[in-house]
Design a protein that fits this description.
Largest sheet: 6 strands, parallel
GO molecular function: ADP-heptose-lipopolysaccharide heptosyltransferase activity
Keywords: Glycosyltransferase, Transferase
Shape: globular
Strand content: 5-15%
Protein name: Glycosyltransferase family 9 protein
Order of helices and strands: EHEHEEHEHEHEHEHEHEHEHH
């Protein structure tokens, strides 16, 4: 009788958040892939992000998991033996720690918190860039991680609006939404200069897209799926958005970007230093990223600032052949 081949040991990673969060976690996911080459790497994340999860090249299995806002899922549909390793890339508090601990993993890699004294991980630093935060967590456990390892390959699908300047007026909260009228002013000026414009919005943002959609602009209201959005961004001449997932997608595809920051400093969520990526921000005390009104610092950014950033030279090594695979 032939002995059964044992199943591969599994690493479970929790990051059940949005598109920008996933992209900020790609360097850590790739570090885990290198550290556990013989394991099945399972990522607990929203099913809608499957295309980007696959493009990361780091994940074997997507375990659908999500909760409203930035909450921790109540449970995970985990089957089979406990994971050999569980990694909390979701947060730093007891809810995410306990969700993973309840699966009885062989090891739990997580930040320390006084509410879960049994977790002896490194200290959480509030003023730390999101990409670096999760790489530092892994390094504390002896896993080398490079926060700059964030590029995605070009999508197989062609862009639905190649060469356009993509304007994405939506964001996760009103505090991070630059006024629609200012996006419309940018769109008009770009079209006057002969530059094609595409306006995108997520589910439920049809009215917002309509407020920005000046005559001559292509519109994609109601939300492209992540694969279509990735193709649009990868094939764009530039992307203008607030601090949201589309900005991270532009960085991942090396597409020129202008990102508008208000309540949260670019030092925490902004693009890496590059002539290709511009973060517009007026320094000041931290605001409420979940506020119900646009942040005052965000409102200090003018359409002229955005247009000026788009006109600045990209510098040496700028991207060419926007849908070429890298």
């Amino acid at each position: 009788m032939t002995a059964a081949v044992p199943a591969r040991p599994r690493v479970l990673v929790l990051r059940a958040l949005g598109l920008g969060d996933l992209l900020a976690g790609v360097p850590a996911l790739r570090a885990l892939r290198r550290a556990f080459p013989g394991h099945e790497l399972v990522l607990a994340a929203p099913a809608a992000l499957a295309a980007v999860v696959a493009a990361s090249g780091a994940v074997d299995t997507l375990l659908p998991a999500a909760a409203p806002g930035r909450a921790v899922p109540r449970s995970l549909a985990w089957r089979g033996p406990p994971p050999e390793v569980a990694v909390d890339l979701h947060g730093n508090g007891p809810p995410s720690h306990r969700l993973l601990s309840d699966l009885r993993p062989g090891r739990l890699l997580a930040f320390a918190h006084p509410g879960t004294p049994e977790v002896s991980g490194p200290r959480w630093l509030a003023e730390e860039h999101e990409r670096e935060r999760w790489c530092r967590l892994l390094r504390a456990y002896g896993i080398p991680a490079d926060a700059t390892d964030l590029a995605l390959p070009a999508p197989e699908d062609a862009s639905p609006a190649p060469g356009a300047v993509v304007l994405h007026p939506g964001a996760g909260s009103p505090a991070r939404c630059w006024p629609a009228g200012r996006y419309a002013a940018v769109a008009r000026r770009l079209l006057e200069r002969g530059r094609p414009v595409a306006v995108t919005g997520g589910p439920g943002e049809e009215e917002l897209v309509a407020q920005v959609a000046v005559p001559g602009a292509r519109t994609f209201p109601g939300g492209l799926d992540v694969g279509e959005l990735s193709a649009l961004v990868a094939g764009a001449a530039a992307v203008v958005s607030g601090d949201t997932g589309v900005a991270h997608l532009a960085v991942a595809h090396a597409t020129r970007s202008v990102t508008l920051f208000g309540p949260v400093a670019p030092a925490l969520w902004g693009p890496p230093p590059s002539a290709r990526h511009t973060a517009l921000w007026h320094p000041g005390p931290p605001g409420d990223p979940h506020g119900r009104q646009p942040d005052p610092r965000l409102l200090r950014i003018r359409p002229e600032d955005v247009l000026g950033a788009l006109e600045r030279p990209e510098g040496p090594g700028r991207k060419t052949g926007r849908n070429q695979r890298r």
